[in-house]
Task: inverse folding
């Protein structure tokens, strides 16, 4: 079992953003007054992932002003975040249920209640309106940051336009419920609205906070929402070539006893099909094909959760032959 990484960053005080002029608490409206898309940046869909909150706070402190269209900055699961405790940082991912597994119209319009569903219903009108979404997250492992672009070409196109992080994952999400990035028009190939989820690095690392801010700025600049990096913030580096991984399998646990065969951090490549990846109770999990890439291994998972995704690198500009 890997020890819990240290908490290097302090979660910012976001109380000043409660009334952001959108009518939805902790959602801030920035309107250029000019024509252009509505760009939405979200942080804290998971309450224990402060990197996105640090990035949005930095944008506000730098007096971000859109050059075209509208920008909305949203702090999502504020109730869980309010209970964030650096001494026990894993506990506040959510209060009642994972807020990134309920973005389905049937669920949102259903009768179930939870603090996360109540909040999702509250922010839904803004999400419905957004043309582009960047949802800022972080991960358990101290691993390379990733863009989760979904399965549609428009997600990959947006990831390429933004240009950073360098690793783009084409994936289907989770069996256990739909993510914000796959919701509504974002998940509909007939619609132009597109979304990216970025995993910025280990939850509580300085690097994750830096990546969140850099990605937010790249997203705003390269979608045309801003025309320059606000004064006082670090200019963007030139984008480097990206590589794309197609998810071919999502391993959802059938038991509470999932263990990995090695201390995987993510993006390791198992050269040969059949190489051991882990065990789900008595059931061995083996590499399903040659060149099998380990994506976001999640240690300490319970039954019914996503333990890891498996995929393969796509050749430059190819579409791969992954499981569509
Ligand atoms: Zn997350």
Result:
């Amino acid at each position: 079992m890997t020890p819990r990484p240290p908490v290097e960053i302090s979660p910012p005080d976001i109380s000043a953003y409660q009334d952001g002029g959108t009518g939805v608490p902790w959602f801030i409206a920035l309107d250029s007054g000019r024509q252009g898309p509505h760009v939405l940046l979200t942080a804290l869909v998971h309450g224990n992932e402060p990197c996105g909150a640090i990035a949005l706070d930095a944008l506000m402190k730098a007096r971000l002003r859109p050059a075209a269209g509208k920008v909305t900055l949203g702090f999502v699961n504020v109730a869980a975040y309010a209970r964030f405790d650096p001494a026990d940082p894993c506990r506040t991912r959510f209060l009642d249920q994972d807020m990134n597994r309920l973005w389905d119209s049937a669920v949102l319009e259903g009768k179930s209640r939870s603090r996360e569903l109540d909040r999702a219903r509250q922010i839904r009108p803004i999400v419905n309106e957004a043309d582009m979404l960047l949802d800022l997250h972080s991960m358990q492992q101290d691993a390379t940051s990733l863009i989760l672009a979904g399965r549609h070409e428009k997600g990959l196109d947006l990831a390429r336009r933004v240009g950073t992080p360098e690793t783009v994952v084409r994936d289907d999400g989770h069996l256990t419920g739909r993510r914000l990035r796959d919701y509504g028009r974002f998940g509909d190939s007939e619609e132009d609205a597109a979304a990216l989820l970025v995993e910025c690095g280990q939850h509580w690392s300085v690097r994750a906070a830096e990546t969140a801010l850099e990605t937010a700025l790249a997203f705003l600049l390269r979608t045309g929402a801003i025309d320059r990096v606000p004064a006082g913030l670090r200019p963007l580096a030139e984008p480097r070539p990206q590589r794309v991984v197609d998810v071919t399998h999502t391993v959802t646990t059938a038991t509470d006893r999932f263990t990995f065969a090695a201390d995987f951090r993510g993006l390791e490549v198992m050269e040969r099909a059949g190489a051991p990846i882990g065990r789900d109770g008595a059931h061995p999990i083996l590499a399903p094909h040659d060149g099998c890439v380990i994506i976001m291994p999640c240690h300490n998972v319970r039954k019914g959760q996503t333990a890891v995704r498996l995929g393969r690198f796509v050749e430059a500009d190819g579409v791969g032959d992954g499981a569509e």
The chain has a mean pLDDT of 94. The longest strand covers residues 243-252. Residues 45-46, 49, 137 surround zinc ion (CB under 6 Å). The domain at 245-314 is CATH 2.40.50 (OB fold (Dihydrolipoamide Acetyltransferase, E2P)).
